[in-house]
Amino acid sequence: MIITLTPNPSIDRTVAFTELHRGAVNRAVSSRVDPGGKGVNVARALTANGVAATAVLPVGGPEGHLMEKLLTDAGVDRLGVPIHQSIRLNVTAVEPDGTTTKLNEPGPRLDEEELRLLLKAVTTGVESAVGGDVWVVACGSLPPGAPEDLYARLVRSAREAGAKVAVDSSGAPLRPAVAASPDLIKPNRVELEELVGTSLTTLGEVVDAAAGLVRGGVGVVAVSLGRDGAVLVDGDTAVHAHASIERPRSTVGAGDCMLAGLLHGLSTGADAASALRTGVLWGAAAVRLPGSRVPGPADLDGIPATLTTTPDRSLAVRD
């Protein structure tokens, strides 16, 4: 069982353009609406591939009602916490070459009781899980005014309830969460640079930075590298996986799908290399889909992937 917490979810409207011009009238060629937020996307990807998952999230306002309908339609199990304000609506503009422009609202301001109920809902989900390992995944940005140590508090409470904890966030919330020694973190290269305070331009530098975090108490560090795949570092190994996509359609949610595949592998007893390969395949499959659609089993076919336990340390990593 995998339980995701998304304290700042969104309704994601993705609009496709043949070309985007700033300051001009832009006419869309298509539009779609999806439930959004990192943890929501992780739960959607897991559900689409037949993996037991529960999404914990606040719901409020007309966007909250729409979120519940979209999750119901997608078959995603959820624990929704009612809030007074409306959840946010984000807009993503996508161009034919895969260029993605995101316009994100800040989200609602949750009071202390609403935040407490969110954490309690996660604990309830852990305690009600039946059999096997339980992973809790803390995902995405925090809503305005939320304490920066919210994810660190989640690491401690979920651990006490018997779960393993993964964190996928950035900026101020990530540092105290890392200090709480989660079982896994999944930064991208830029987020890892912010965390360790230095520029990382080669795969070797990324591996060394991740290894330093593992020595500091994090169980596993999985770094998503966009077109360069992903690297996973734990106490024993450093593994690099890469999948080639010739015609990308949208990168929205691809990192979330990568995390979903990785956690699916780890939660079912796969070794680090196999779990990372699964994660990279799921992320690559998402890039081939429009908007923030998540891949199902049929979408994973025909994607070439490489995997090595001896990463090329001289490889230049790109955005």
Q: Report the sheet with the most strands, covering strand number, pairing sense and barrel closure.
A: 10 strands, mixed
Order of helices and strands: EEEHEHEEEHEHEHEHHEEEHHE
Gap between N and C termini, in Å? 33 Å
CA radius of gyration is 18 Å
Strand content: 15-25%
Structural class: alpha/beta
Helix content class: 25-40%
Low-confidence stretches: none
Strand order of the largest sheet: 5-4-1-8-9-10-11-12-13-14
Multimerization state: single chain
Mean pLDDT score, rounded? 93
The number of helical segments is 9
Quick one: overall form?
globular
Count of beta strands: 14
What would you say this structure looks like, in words?
This protein has 319 residues and is α/β, with parallel strands linked by helices. The chain has helices spanning 38-48, 61-73, 112-128, 150-160, 174-179, 189-196, 203-215, 254-267, 272-287, and strands at residues 2-5, 10-16, 30-36, 53-59, 77-82, 88-94, 100-103, 135-139, 164-168, 184-185, 220-224, 230-233, 238-243, 305-308. The chain has a ten-stranded mixed β-sheet, with helices on both faces. Strands 3-2-6-7 form a four-stranded mixed β-sheet. The chain is globular and about 50 Å long. The mean pLDDT is 93.
Short key terms for the protein model shown above:
14 strands; ten-stranded mixed β-sheet; 34% helix; four-stranded mixed β-sheet; 319 residues; 9 helices; alpha/beta
